[in-house]
Write a structure and sequence with these properties.
Length: 343
């Protein structure tokens, strides 16, 4: 396990950010926030999949109307994402939002920013200073972006506000890494990691792995989001898998499966997808082996907590190293679920 950089500690509700050997996973809803039912459902799903914090966008008055109700019913602290309107930030803080994300360059005047700080102090909330390269009007170097950030932090500190989290995101994974490396040497506030606008699932996984792995191994980063275009429920799953493979143990299934070959004599891919979806929805810290044939399948399944390998239209199931029996490929998934519940 890598020792985390001991940044300053802040909190969003009951969730500690910084000054611990842990990276807090978060994601963001993509429902219209004003649709209370759909938004709350997605918040609960994200929390179930491993998010300790969930961010929601505040676009208009309709969104503001449901904030108090969402805060009261959410299973985890919420972050309000606000741009262009400082009054929306204040209204969210008044309704119990535990953390807000703003970009000081687009939220309003210095006096309006002071008003946000005043209310954040009053309600003991944390502010994330979020700077995305895509929102900067002119092209800046890494050093110039960091200097811009330091100017913002100085303003907050001059107004005696220190419950700060920082993000510095680029769609370029290499530039993202450079930004956070320099930031970690320059400031001691908690850092929220992410490659922004990373693209659809496959692209996002690759870019995020390139941009964030080295940072995490160096102990940099206090919260994380892997941004994936589309369904946000993919995000916490990938976050957990990335952190787990980098030594920051998560409550997650480690699936061992072969790439397949011509020895395959059953519906391997279909069953693997079923197992993967089931395990993602029911996470446990266990090893699961799904193998195509007996060549490597026997030992992998014996050594896993649970697993099966294929025969001709059949599969042999193992549980905690014991041979449970042979089942048809139509029945193996139900048998797998039954024994998985015993783990």
């Amino acid at each position: 396990m890598f020792i985390r950089t001991q940044t300053k500690k802040t909190k969003a509700g009951n969730v500690q950010i910084g000054h611990q050997n842990k990276v807090v996973i978060q994601s963001m809803t993509n429902t219209k926030t004003g649709d209370f039912t759909k938004t709350l459902q997605q918040i609960k799903q994200l929390h179930h999949l491993g998010c300790e914090l969930v961010r929601i966008s505040i676009l208009d008055i309709e969104d503001l109307k449901v904030i108090k109700k969402l805060v009261d019913n959410a299973p985890c602290p919420l972050i309000a994402d606000i741009h262009y309107n400082y009054l929306f930030a204040i209204k969210c803080l008044e309704q119990g939002i535990q953390k807000i994300r703003i970009n000081p360059d687009n939220i309003g005047t210095k006096e309006q920013l002071k008003e946000i700080i005043k209310y954040a102090k009053k309600y003991k909330a944390t502010i994330r200073i979020g700077i995305n390269e895509g929102s900067i009007k002119k092209k800046l170097t890494v050093k110039q972006i960091i200097n811009n950030l330091k100017n913002h932090i100085k303003f907050f500190e001059q107004n005696k506000f220190y419950d700060i989290v920082v993000s510095l995101k680029s769609s370029d994974p290499y530039k993202t890494e450079q930004l956070y490396l320099l930031a970690s040497k320059t400031i001691n506030y908690p850092l929220h990691l992410g490659v922004t606008e990373a693209g659809p699932k496959e692209d996002a996984i690759i870019k995020s792995t390139i941009g964030l792995s080295n940072l995490i191994k160096k102990g940099i980063g206090d919260t994380i989001r892997i941004s994936i275009s589309g369904n946000p429920l993919n995000e916490p799953i990938i976050c957990k898998k990335l952190l787990n493979n980098l030594g920051l143990n998560q409550q997650i299934v480690n699936i061992i499966s072969c790439p397949t070959c011509g020895r395959l004599l059953f519906s391997f891919e279909k069953l693997l997808n079923l197992v993967n979806e089931f395990c993602n929805a029911n996470p446990k810290k266990v090893n699961v082996a799904i193998m195509g044939c007996s060549v490597n399948g026997i030992e992998e399944c014996k050594n896993a907590d649970i697993g099966f390998y294929g025969l001709k239209n059949q599969c042999k199931l193992y549980f905690k190293g014991k041979d449970i029996g042979i089942y048809s490929e139509n029945k193996i998934f139900n048998e797998f679920k039954k024994y998985y519940e015993k783990l």
